[in-house]
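Today's session is about reading a structure prediction critically. Students often jump straight to the picture, but the first step is always the sequence itself: look for stretches that repeat, for charged clusters, for runs of hydrophobic residues. Only then move on to the predicted structure, which in these notes is written as discrete structure tokens rather than atom positions. Here is the chain we will use throughout the hour.
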Amino acid sequence: MAERVFLHVGQPKTGTTYLQTILWSHRDRIAEADGVCVPGDTRVDHLWTSLAVREDPRLHKRSERAPGAIDRVLAASAAWPGTVVVSHEFFGAARADQAAALVERFAPAEVHVVVTAREPASLMAAAWQESLKFRQTTPLRDFAAGPEDDTSKVWSLRSLDLAGVLDRWAPAVPAGQVHVLPLPHQRGEPDELWHRFAGLVGIDGPAYDTAVARANPSMPLVETELLRRLTPRLTTFRDPLARHRWVRSHLAETLLAGRPGDRVGLYDDQLAACRARGEAAVEAVRRHGVQVHGDVDHLRVPAALPAQHTPEDVSEADLAAVTVRTLATMVADLRRLREGGLPPT
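Below is the predicted structure for this chain, in token form.
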């Protein structure tokens, strides 16, 4: 049985995909050189395990292998003599009893809960944008508008409210075994998050190539609103993998992301609620005796913020211009695809 298990439970949009990509890309070497196991057959096993833990009724619809993922993860952990890392950002939405049940299934290993975190205003804007890539169509005004009891609703305060995540997960492990890694307000060294995370779980961070984790630039405001309006009409993608490739990876992250333009901002009432959640997060860290690896003040919304641009600021002319530009790019891509020259995404 593993001696230690690090459960990385979120939050979404806090560098989780970046960390997971590095872990899975170097999994064999990390196990051999550092004695750290990333259990499961494939990366999606950790997502499926989070669905099982949260008792999501849609688990069996994912794949015939999905229901068995949690057993594969637990079996590999039981067979490993050192440290185990399990990582998915949707674990954080679990109820307290579900969190405790998962920790118990790793017994007698010493279980640590790890939360990568971010100040609530930028987190909320980024999470709304990300949710649109997963077939969500909720307008920004109504996004994460209040508490959510349904653990399957991961694009909600179940995942985005750090105080709530800590209140549910911290009691599942002994004091001192909950760790929060706050993202800095200003982008720092490119690999800073990896080095902090790796050092915590016992991996020699600098020994691994982080270039395998590609950047995930955000979409400007107008492009984001285009995706939200387009999503309900993308009804032909019944295969989740095809949708992931063409809608999320190609359309959103390749065509629409990284363009110049205003960033997604928040409404005044949302910003006030985020400031309150930031203060509540700092208080929860103190109350639960959480170990903070970084600056706890980075869990608060900065006092000074740039101008906030919301979908109400998007004109139909702006939207038409972005649509025409996107269509022109897609026609060129279609030609290259038919000629065999479009690279995979």
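Discussion point for the tutorial: The chain has a mean pLDDT of 94.
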